[in-house]
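tool_call: predict_structure(chain=1)
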Amino acid sequence: MFLMTLFALLCLTLCVAAFGPQRLILPLVSASFLVAVLIYFHHATDALPLSF
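tool_result:
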């Protein structure tokens, strides 16, 4: 879910950067960075099942 959201957000950011108004680029880049950080923290806080 998060990865598809990040992918769609990055595609939208690239399209806006190429063809859209420049005032939308910074909020889209910020939102995609926030989603990437959320994905990182989602995976970084998973408990690892270790068996020794």
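agent: The longest helix spans residues 25-44. Proceeding to next step.
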